[in-house]
Amino acid sequence: MKAKGFFVINKPIGISSQRAVQFVKYWARKKTGNRKIKVGHAGTLDPLATGVLVIAIGREYTKQIDKVVQSEKEYLAEIKLGETSETDDQEGKKTIYNVENVPTKSEIKKTLKKFTGKIKQTPPAYSAIKIKGQEAYKRVRKGEIVKMKEREVEIKKIDLLFYDFPILKIKVVCGKGTYIRSLARDVGEELKIGGYLFSLQRTRVGKFELKNAYEVFEFKREKNFKEIILTLANRVKRFFKI
Question: What's the gap between Cα 43 and its chain centre?
Fold first, then answer.
């Protein structure tokens, strides 16, 4: 019996997606005794973000990662208006705006509509996108001036969940390559009051949903590893018609 398949975890705040993969790899190797088992993830989540992280276990499934990456994604995002951040999220140095006219709920809704559909978006300079072989954020931290290329992304839907200035909560359904940090920044710019991503949770990647994800503490205790992986593998085979 070989352990393989797609495994879904609820990535906690404070660790990188790659760190989560390393954790799963260690756990999988320890449970199966296979020191060469392949493990990878489908779609990076920032350390400050939580939620669905799809992890592929086994060579057959790591080869299918791109298919998962192409899937539609859903996020719950909290934006703080009236300030900007160097990193477009909580981590960076903040600049506070003097907001004389607080946007109304109607103005917020009109602004959000401008960001639905196929739009041009500039990724954050503090991102893992590689420029000349090195991640952009590493270049920025070394003091380099990094110019990120604008690209087309698709935001299929934005629902306004809550608004009480300066906090704005939205649900976003989007295609691959969309940066919610960039969306938060751009919404603030459009409103002319600044904004950055305060918190982010990914609730879905394709058919992989948060409600079916394993918490890390459950993951550590799980004993029937092989049976779970094989069950997930069979589901994914039907979904991707592998």
Answer: 7
From 46, 88, 89, 186, the catalytic residue: 46
Taking only the tens place, the pLDDT of each residue in 138-173 is 787 777 777 888 999 999 999 999 999 999 999 999
Q: Which CATH number fits domain 5-70+206-240: 3.40.50, 1.20.120, 1.10.60, 3.30.70?
A: 3.30.70
The structure's pTM equals: 0.87
The model's pLDDT over 41-88, given as tens digits with 9 standing for 90+, comes to 988 898 899 999 998 888 888 888 888 888 999 999 999 999 999 999
| Nearest Cα residue to 3 out of 242, 207, 228 | 228
Instruction: Confirm whether 164 is a catalytic residue.
Output: no
> 180-191 and 105-113 helices cross at what angle (nearest 10)?
130
